[in-house]
User: Which sequence fits this backbone?
């Protein structure tokens, strides 16, 4: 192997846990600001909206308030956004072992890249907040290609920038359809980050498909390379 491509969320950072904590903080803040709704009902509505528009959609709370109240209450919205951002900034950190593993991979003279479906600015903000950006030779977010994984353009952009062939690169990610199947189709080796896999959010297990490797912690990657 000459290179490794990583997914970002739920591969390098526990985004699902961060998302749940931030959502709860926002819901609590809205209720404290006067919104009359149970946590259970609020969670159901937010989950449905996230499934429809995506977890990174910038006006999720506006849509939520329109559905619940029939309008946007700006005081409630401001409290929700502030609580959400405060929680995300406080608890954004990489999985245990990520930094030490990346250091060792760089010492092995491997080229490292990120290919993520996250919006460019939000993705870079997460990388910068965790001080991870110096480790990567190439970073590709959704805005850089205009398409989402498993579209081969996302992987090929990173491969071309690193000047490596698909068969010379390992893809590490939590999502079956986007990361594993997509990378395998163009000839890359695949490593499923099972520690970040969440049924539903990380895609369903694909029948008759097996990744080349499966790891339960990122440190196990060093045993493969």
Assistant:
């Amino acid at each position: 192997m000459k290179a490794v491509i990583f997914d970002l969320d739920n591969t390098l950072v526990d985004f699902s846990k961060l998302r749940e904590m931030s959502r709860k903080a926002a819901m609590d803040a809205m209720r404290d600001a006067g919104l009359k709704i149970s946590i259970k009902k609020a969670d159901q509505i937010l989950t449905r909206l996230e499934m429809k528009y995506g977890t990174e959609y910038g006006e999720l709370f506006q849509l939520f308030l329109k559905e619940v109240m029939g309008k946007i209450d700006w005081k409630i919205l401001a409290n929700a956004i502030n609580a959400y951002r405060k929680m995300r900034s406080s608890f954004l950190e990489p999985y245990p072992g990520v930094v030490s593993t990346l250091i060792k991979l760089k010492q092995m003279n491997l080229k490292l890249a990120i290919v993520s479906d996250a919006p460019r600015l939000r993705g870079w903000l997460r990388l910068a907040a965790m001080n991870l950006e110096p480790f990567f030779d190439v970073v590709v977010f959704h805005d850089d290609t205009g398409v989402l994984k498993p579209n081969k353009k996302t992987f090929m952009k990173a491969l071309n920038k690193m000047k490596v062939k698909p068969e010379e690169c390992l893809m590490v990610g939590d999502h079956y359809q986007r990361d594993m199947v997509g990378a395998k189709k163009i000839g890359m080796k695949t490593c499923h980050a099972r520690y970040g896999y969440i049924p539903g959010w990380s895609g369903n297990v694909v029948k008759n498909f097996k990744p080349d490797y499966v790891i339960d912690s990122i440190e196990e990657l060093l045993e493969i390379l």
